[in-house]
């Protein structure tokens, strides 16, 4: 039915806007249609639905569709196709809505046509819902719409995406008409399922029926050629694309590059890549991924760099390929750069990129960063879980892998074969047989096939755990075995003493046609070594290169040396080593050295040992063995030389370690360790066994390491042997003691009292014992067990007094708290030898940095440490000095970092109360200027400008002592013989020029001159004593003072009357409150500009409410809490606050100093009173409150308070007593040294009421020139 003539123009215009995707003009036309009341025309209404759908506004299209009164099939088709075409972008919701629309359409008896089925089948393919596709297929057959080519092609696509290729092929073969889309869809379905032969068959059929092959068909068939066997077919298709002129199409060129790269033909891939004229991100991604998958990661990274220089933005697939390249070569720094780049590019939210990132960090050994990325994702998929577990296993963190697997099970995530393979490998590395059996049961429960990956891992696990019967059972039940499966079983037999069975299994493998690799021959040669089969081992060594073209590696040479050495053919072994073509390093000479020790061939052993010394061996066993050989030869000078060389090269002997599993518990013993609860009983059992062996006349061979023995020493040789092999006796002795706890034990030498034994007695079970030591005889196939202690991420709480240290910071060559703690962690066994001095390896982080001399009570550091056996805190404190105390530790998450997770920090500054007294410890000029006035300032004789100390007169006013300023000079000069005449006498003469007559008359009238004379006499008498600098006024009294009167008048009250009362507290807290909030502290920060973000600081609280007495000095406790600080900022804040409190500056100066555009100099308080009180982890505690312990000082309050009183408070008080640090600083707190204290402001009203301050300021102006040098020296 044609469009009505009156609506034709609107219809044509709407079709034009739809083709142009012109949304604004289309909406305007929609408004015109509504205004002219022409919406009732179904043609216009359907066109509007199609317009909004094509423009991507599906909600508006749906709204228009619902307002159509008489819907026809075109109305439904417009909306259905609109939603189905958006399905890949909008997700499954749009496709599900299409299926609902189709049901509604059928409910209204609207008969669908071919376009309807095309849209519905597209939605079903997006959902990969084969069942829905089959239902619609049945309706299409009933409505006779199946013959349409679009319907058939869409249906083929549904079955292909659902993996039902047989049904897809049936539909494809029954299609009466096929187009290029039909052919390309069927080929693509086969290619997706890696069915290259079938895909090529379809491609041949299309060429026979229609020679016009387009780009869609070519890209589909090329995508299925992903193995080297089909590279020739790919080359033929390449030629066809050139012949048909399709190579210029970028999609064809990309498919060819991908095909060559996946087939391993990188030269042709690179040639095609270079000849491609129009390269896009897919072209570059294909080449980069090809290099990465072929193991040529360096070229992949170089190509990515070229791509970046060519200003081509990479896709997410490119970045995944680059990250995989970084993973393969462990390029951690390069991976971090790519990580930074993808963050800037906005790819950080895509799951497959994050999975590649986690895999990269894990394979590069940075499991901490990998775990951060893993924890960042709220919904991690199975690929990410598998990558994280595999990363832990690859880096030897097997316990963490098992813990993560347990968490995965707790969240109900179903593992795949790769996941279970990683978990089984973790059990294998730990020799955890029981856990391995449980994982094996899980694989059966999950229905995972026992084929190559899982079967090989299981057989390896059982073999390493010594359960060869179970390993063989798994091996025999594997439906298909590859070379890894054979190697796992052969290695297990060889390592467990079944050499004959290992060789038989090798012959069986050859009989089945499996080609051995180099690992196979390592296992076979190892079996020959243990069985003493020299000739057979030599035959296998020749077979390796002659029959299988395998080039011998150092492992094979080591096995051959071991075979000859065990058989006693030491000279042949030496000749074999010298004839070896491979760069064997030190491994072969080490094996020969051990054999020479066993066969007492000292000359050849010395030759082998000297070879090792020349090569710079770092194995302690080589030095020990060579030293023992020289001792046996009587060459004591060479013994000393070897020992010096060992010390010079920093070679240290790792302690032996043994463990035994008993009643599902692993008991670990380390040489020199006394921490096991039953160590006393175990040593007693060792003594019983050794006595029984000695009573049965057992004579061990002498130990070469201890040298030859004189006859009088031979009686003790047995004890040496037992002690030297204690690592082997301890687990067995412990097990025997636990199996027979009531057995009588002979009297043994006195032992340290052991801790109380455990109450639980183990059942009688099969014992599993393992031993490791670097002095054991070297064999190339025996796997050295790792120490079974677990590294745990912990946060350590500790305190320290900062005196004598350069702070808690990195300062190479200086004595720091951080360096002290790092060394003690190593000495206490928390850090292994290889990580000593490299804190990055164990994720070292501190919560706060402190400067020189600054103390701390709530300091926290984090890292991965060995916390077993129990007693880590005691071991740390026993190795630390008394001024450093560890309180304890808490287990934390793997991503925890003490610095990054610390929300805020609380610092405390102890300021003496006298520092807040505006009249105490004033500078000399202010005091002298105030003499004779109504309110004289306090002159402090206890800490003069030179820092000399005179005990007993602190805080007394001049008139209270009955002295004039001249008497003050006399005392100051006599105090230690300090001569201040050049400066002080000149000062006094200048100051008193106009007032000398009045002052002298006052002194005479009050009887002061007599007191001055007597005081000078006292000074002279005291100077004759050897201790003139101390106790000057302790043994003598000022005349007139002892009677309590002064010239017949009552004596004024003694000392200053200042105290830190409520009024003073309110004022000081008001001053400190100015700092609270977010401010620019550039005036309080050294070398930081106002524009620098580091100048911004946020202070949560700042108050001073507590006063306490320490060693006779009252202190005010100033507490400041904030996010982060530079410690000199706190000192400057305290310095300015004290200056304001002492009326040296106005209170408004603080607000002025916090302004961004003002630059002033503020005083800095001494560092001695500052300490870190606590680090707070509020956000961390809130997030992990359900699974981890709270990180706080709760539980340590009493210990912390005792430490503060004993070390920190006493140090601050004693320093003030001895050196007068704060008092000397107060002398320099004046406008001459800090002219900015009067910056831009008048003195406030409180300062105006103190005339002595004004007099001091005037005096400063008149005497500044004459005394500048002295004042500068005094301030310093």
From TrEMBL:
Is Transmembrane found in the keyword set?
Answer: no
Q: Which UniProt keywords apply?
A: Isomerase, Repeat
Region called Disordered, residue ranges: 697-722, 740-786, 1250-1276
**CDD domains (UniProt xref):** PseudoU_synth_PUS1_PUS2 (cd02568)
* InterPro entries for the chain: E_motif (IPR046848), PPR_At4g14850-like_plant (IPR046960), PPR_rpt (IPR002885), PsdUridine_synth_cat_dom_sf (IPR020103), PsdUridine_synth_TruA_a/b_dom (IPR020097), PsdUridine_synth_TruA_C (IPR020095), PUS1/PUS2-like (IPR041708), TPR-like_helical_dom_sf (IPR011990)
Domain Pseudouridine synthase I TruA alpha/beta, which positions? Answer: 1072-1177
Which parts are the PPR repeats?
148-182, 280-314, 381-415, 482-516
Nucleus in keyword set? no
Matching entries from NCBIfam families are given as:
PPR
Q: What is this protein called?
A: Pseudouridine synthase I TruA alpha/beta domain-containing protein
């Amino acid at each position: 039915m044609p469009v009505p003539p009156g609506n034709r123009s609107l219809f044509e215009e709407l079709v034009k806007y739809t083709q142009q995707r012109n949304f604004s003009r289309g909406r305007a036309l929609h408004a015109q249609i509504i205004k002219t009341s022409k919406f009732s025309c179904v043609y216009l209404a359907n066109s509007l639905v199609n317009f909004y759908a094509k423009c991507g506004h599906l909600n508006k299209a749906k709204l228009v569709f619902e307002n159509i009164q008489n819907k026809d099939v075109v109305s439904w088709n417009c909306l259905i196709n609109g939603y189905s075409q958006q399905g890949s972008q909008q997700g499954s919701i749009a496709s599900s809505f299409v299926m609902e629309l189709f049901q509604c359409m059928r409910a209204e008896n609207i008969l669908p046509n071919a376009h309807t089925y095309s849209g519905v089948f597209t939605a079903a393919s997006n959902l990969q819902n084969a069942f829905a596709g089959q239902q619609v297929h049945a309706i299409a057959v009933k409505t006779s719409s199946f013959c349409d080519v679009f319907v058939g092609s869409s249906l083929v696509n549904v079955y292909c995406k659902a993996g039902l290729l047989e049904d897809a092929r049936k539909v494809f073969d029954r299609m009466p008409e096929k187009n290029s889309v039909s052919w390309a869809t069927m080929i693509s379905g086969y290619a997706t399922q890696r069915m290259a032969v079938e895909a090529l068959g379809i491609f041949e059929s299309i060429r026979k029926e229609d020679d016009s092959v387009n780009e869609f068909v070519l890209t589909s068939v090329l995508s299925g050629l992903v193995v080297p066997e089909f590279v020739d077919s790919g080359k033929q298709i390449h030629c066809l694309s050139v012949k048909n002129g399709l190579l210029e199409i970028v999609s064809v060129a990309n498919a060819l590059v991908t095909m060559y790269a996946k087939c391993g033909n990188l030269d042709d891939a690179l040639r095609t890549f270079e000849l491609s004229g129009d390269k896009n991100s897919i072209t570059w991604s294909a080449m980069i991924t090809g290099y990465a998958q072929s193991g040529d990661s360096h070229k992949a990274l170089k190509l990515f760099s070229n791509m970046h220089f060519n200003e081509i933005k990479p896709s997410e697939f490119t970045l995944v390929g680059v990250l995989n390249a970084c993973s393969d070569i462990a390029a951690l720094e390069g991976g971090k750069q790519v990580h930074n780049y993808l963050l800037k590019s906005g790819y950080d939210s895509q799951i497959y990129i994050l999975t590649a990132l986690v895999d990269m960090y894990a394979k590069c050994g940075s499991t901490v960063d990998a775990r951060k990325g893993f924890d960042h994702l709220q919904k991690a998929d199975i690929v990410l879980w598998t990558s994280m577990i595999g990363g832990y296993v690859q880096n030897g963190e097997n316990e963490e892998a098992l813990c993560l697997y347990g968490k995965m099970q707790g969240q109900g995530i179903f593992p795949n074969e790769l996941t279970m393979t990683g978990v089984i490998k973790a059990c294998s590395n730990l020799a955890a047989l029981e856990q391995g059996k449980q994982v094996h049961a899980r694989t059966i429960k999950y229905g995972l096939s026992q084929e190559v990956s899982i079967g090989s891992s299981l057989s390896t696990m059982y073999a390493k755990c010594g359960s060869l019967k179970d390993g063989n059972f798994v091996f025999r039940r594997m439906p298909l075995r590859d070379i890894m499966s054979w190697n796992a079983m052969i290695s297990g037999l060889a390592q467990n003493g079944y050499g004959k069975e290992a060789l038989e299994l090798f012959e069986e493998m050859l009989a089945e046609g499996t080609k051995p690799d180099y690992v196979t021959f390592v296992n076979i040669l190892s079996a020959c070594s243990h069985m003493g089969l020299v000739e057979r081992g030599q035959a296998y060594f020749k077979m390796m290169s002659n029959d299988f073209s395998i080039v011998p590696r150092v492992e094979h040479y080591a096995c051959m040396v071991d075979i000859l050495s065990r058989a006693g053919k030491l000279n042949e072994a030496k000749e074999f080593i010298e004839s070896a073509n491979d760069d064997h390093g030190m491994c072969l000479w080490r094996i020969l050295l051990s054999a020479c020790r066993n066969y007492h061939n000292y000359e050849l052993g010395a030759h082998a040992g000297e070879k090792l010394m020349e090569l710079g061996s770092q194995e302690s066993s080589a030095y020990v063995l060579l030293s023992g050989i020289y001792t046996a030869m009587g060459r004591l000078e060479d013994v000393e030389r070897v020992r010096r060389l060992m010390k010079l090269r920093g070679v240290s002997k790792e302690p032996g370690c043994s463990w035994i599993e008993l009643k599902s518990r692993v008991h670990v013993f380390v040489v020199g360790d006394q921490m096991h609860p039953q160590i006393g009983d175990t040593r007693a059992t060792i003594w019983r066994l050794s006595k029984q062996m000695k009573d049965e006349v057992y004579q061990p061979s002498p130990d070469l390491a201890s040298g030859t023995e004189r006859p009088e020493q031979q009686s003790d040789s047995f004890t040496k042997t037992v002690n030297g092999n204690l690592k082997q006796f301890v687990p067995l002795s412990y097990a025997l003691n636990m199996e027979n706890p009531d057995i009588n034990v002979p009297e043994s030498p006195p032992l340290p009292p052991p801790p109380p034994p455990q109450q639980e007695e183990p059942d009688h079970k099969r014992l599993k014992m393992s031993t490791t030591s670097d002095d054991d005889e070297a064999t190339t196939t025996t796997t050295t067990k790792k120490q079974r202690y677990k590294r745990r991420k912990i946060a350590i709480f500790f305190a320290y007094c900062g005196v004598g240290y350069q702070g808690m910071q990195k300062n190479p060559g200086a004595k720091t708290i951080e360096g002290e703690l790092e060394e003690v962690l190593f000495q206490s066994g928390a850090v292994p030898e290889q990580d000593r001095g490299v804190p990055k390896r164990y994720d070292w982080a501190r919560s706060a940095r402190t400067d020189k001399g600054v103390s701390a009570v709530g300091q926290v550091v984090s890292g991965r440490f060995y916390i077993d056996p129990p007693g880590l805190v005691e071991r740390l404190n026993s190795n630390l000095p008394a001024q450093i105390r560890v309180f304890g530790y808490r287990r934390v998450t793997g991503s925890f970092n003490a610095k990054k997770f610390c929300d805020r920090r609380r610092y405390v500054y102890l300021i003496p109360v006298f520092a807040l007294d505006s009249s105490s410890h004033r500078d000399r000029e202010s005091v002298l200027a105030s003499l004779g006035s109504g309110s004289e300032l306090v002159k402090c004789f206890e800490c003069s400008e030179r820092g000399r100390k005179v005990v007993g007169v602190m805080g007394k006013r001049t008139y209270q002592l009955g002295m004039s300023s001249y008497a003050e000079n006399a005392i100051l000069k006599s105090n230690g013989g300090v001569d201040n005449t050049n400066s002080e006498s000149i000062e006094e003469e200048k100051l008193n020029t106009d007032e000398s007559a009045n002052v002298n008359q006052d002194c005479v009238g009050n009887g002061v001159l007599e007191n001055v004379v007597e005081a000078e006499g006292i000074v002279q008498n005291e100077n004759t004593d050897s201790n003139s600098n101390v106790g000057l006024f302790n043994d003598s009294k000022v005349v007139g003072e002892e009677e309590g009167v002064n010239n017949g008048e009552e004596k004024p009250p003694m000392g200053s009357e200042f105290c830190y009362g409520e009024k003073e507290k309110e004022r000081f807290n008001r001053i400190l409150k100015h700092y609270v909030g977010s401010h620019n502290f550039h005036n309080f920060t050294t070398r930081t500009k106002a524009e620098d973000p580091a100048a911004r600081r946020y202070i949560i609280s700042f108050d001073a409410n507590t006063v306490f007495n320490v060693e006779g000095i009252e202190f005010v406790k100033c507490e400041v809490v904030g996010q982060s600080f530079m410690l000199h900022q706190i000192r400057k804040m305290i310095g300015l606050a004290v200056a304001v409190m002492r009326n040296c500056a106005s209170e408004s100066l603080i607000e002025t100093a916090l302004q961004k555009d003002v630059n002033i100099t503020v005083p800095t308080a001494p560092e001695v009173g500052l300490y870190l009180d606590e680090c707070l982890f509020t956000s961390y505690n809130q997030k992990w409150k359900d699974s981890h312990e709270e990180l706080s000082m709760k539980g340590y309050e009493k210990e912390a308070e005792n430490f503060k009183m004993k070390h920190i408070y006493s140090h601050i008080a004693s320093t003030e007593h001895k050196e007068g640090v704060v008092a000397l600083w107060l002398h320099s707190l004046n406008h001459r040294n800090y002219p900015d204290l009067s910056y831009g402001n008048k003195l406030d009203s409180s300062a105006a009421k103190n005339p002595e301050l004004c007099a001091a300021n005037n005096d400063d102006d008149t005497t500044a020139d004459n005394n500048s040098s002295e004042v500068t020296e005094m301030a310093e």
